[in-house]
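TEACHING EXERCISE
Course module: macromolecular assemblies
Task: Read the component lines below, then compare them to the predicted structure of the full complex.
Student: A.B.
Group: 4
Components provided:
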Amino acid sequence: MKTTNLTGERIKQYLDEGKRFDGRKPDEFRKISVETSVSKKAEGSARVKIGKTEVLVGIKMDVSEPYPDSPNEGKLMVTSELLPLSSPRFESGPPRFPAIELGRLIDRGIRESKFIEFDKLCIKKREKVWGVFIDIYSINDDGNLIDAAGIGALAALKQVKLPKYDEKNEKVLHGEWTNKKLPLSKDIPIITTLYKIGKNIIVDPTLEEEDVSEVKITIGGTVEGAIFSMQKGNSKKISIKDFHKVLDLADKIRKKFFTSIEKFLK
Amino acid sequence: MVLQLQRKLKKMTKNKIERKIVIPGEIIAKGEDYLPGEGTEKRGDEIITTRYGLAEESNRLMKVIALSGIYQPRRGNVVIGRVENVTFYGWNIDLDSPEYAFLPLQEVPTYVNKDRLNDIFEIGDVIIAKIIGVTNRGIDLTIKSRGLGKIDEGIIIKINSNKVPRIIGKEGSMINLMKNESGCHITVGQNGLIWIQGDKIEDELLVKKAIMFVNEKSFTSGLTKEMKEWFNKEKQK
Amino acid sequence: MSAVKEFKRPDGRKPDEIRPMEAKVGIVPNADGSAMFSFGDTIAIAAVYGPKKMHPQHQQNPEKGTLRCTYNMLSFSVTERIRPGPNRRSTEIGKITEWSLDPVVMIKKYPNMVIDVHIHVLQANASTRCAGINAAALALAHAGIPMNDIVSSISIGKLDKQLVVDLDKDEEDWEEGEGATDIPITMTPNGDITHIQLDGKINSKVLKEVIELARIKTKEVYEVQKKALKDSIKEIK
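Instructor-supplied answer key:
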């Protein structure tokens, strides 16, 4: 059942006092846990839990032709599925917008940061390059799937071992791995989403809080303050003043957030 | 004759089953001495469980207290729901149950202008109502009694309807304890939606926390006593 | 039976040895019921939603409810990435799962309604449908759905002439002698068959032995399922 207006009003009133229903501060995350190697068959995989929210992220690698406009660069494909298993609100069938949005947000956060060094994923210019497939699945939605997916993607990317490649037959030997890691840069893109509820900005909403939020802004950037990607979601407006608040808070949050997830990115 | 009765009694006490966790398909009683109740069925001369939960025997009646499952609407139940749609004849109410529920405009105690049903309740409003009928078309509701109608303030929380009796407690012992300790008004809908309203949001959230505590510990005996201690601890925080 | 001793399985198991099994209920808090079940590296999860009204309305059955199972493998559950979304294999296994469970689910109680069971394989090393069915049976019981039994599933294999239980991927690809025959079977604790499939080469006489082996081995699976359900209620006194 969607959060009632009644409860929604209370959430807003309480936030005006700077408090949240579960006792957190507006800029505080729930407990985050990450478990890697959830599938031995993946090149890298991770299970992320933020409070009761849970996502699985897995990475597979394959070799194919490069895009014509980047003949010596590897490829990135991010897809996400909001499984009907994970919420009574998700239905079976072709992916709907929220699932597509989730994949796109993670895709751009990673792509634009140049975290994956695509130029090192070229096998033969114009002919063969590595493709990185990141697949995201929701297991339980209690709000903030986006940030959970972001951590999952990073943790899984860090795990990746390249599969063996048979150069003579130009074939990937699926299920056999080398010791080579995925070439990754130091610019780790941290994807955080800020939500506006009434006149307050919060991070890591529960589903209840997500229900009553008016605007969400997803930002991908580094702890040093570089911003690579951004998207405003939901059909409500936000004032310039509030937007400034979002940016300032986001800078702060990224640092805090990174410290709490750093240990999972080894 | 007396001997026979004694033997029978002895057999009964010997076979007496205390509350125990069961899964579907377990044999919980044998012989003609027992009757199958809720969550059980007779297979030959055995009584078999058909629900996951706690098996219990009282006066030779075997039953399973389910821990999960959908809400079974009954006439006379007080329920809490959310207005889902406003139609020409009344309001569709979401009781978080698979059945459709409807509040016809005749069941509202005030005069209703047929063109302005929205003035009474609009989509998203939360109401307390009573079930006046359950048919194959769905559930019919009324708000023509004291204590029923629109809720203006407070929070709504949701638990599984099968756990409602535990939240209320024996003769209301649990819910009264919560009311006294928190000073909140609490209405427990039989469908598992609960309305909490207090002077301060903190008080409402304390009740929410208490209910979730009971919800998880549903099967401990002496829960009311434990609850009292819980409140003492929480208040010292 | 001297051949039994000499026979070496690729992973060193005895012919009638099931890989370590693990089961847990309540893994998806949002769902009405949920569970995971694993045979070694093969891990399946299942969640149940419902009973709820069937939509679209023309699919409603006034005679009885509908059990609707979907089965899917996560793209990275196997070494070569599977394109997300349903395919012919997953559609068939979804249906097979429905047939496996239908005989024990008391679906008559829920006319016009649907019970959704979503199964996902997180990591695959053969016997995924069996793990999925085992998880689904647990999730249904956990959701409080009335059932007159729990079903348990296992794959029996014939490698050349040797019968083995719980095939893994290496064994599925067995090529020596008569090669591999894969026979997933689902049974009630009484030994009634709710599902059987076969791929390979066998005769009726051996197949009867297979059934007998399955009858014994599904009991082991059943014990693991039963424990998972019972362990999830801890607070009983």
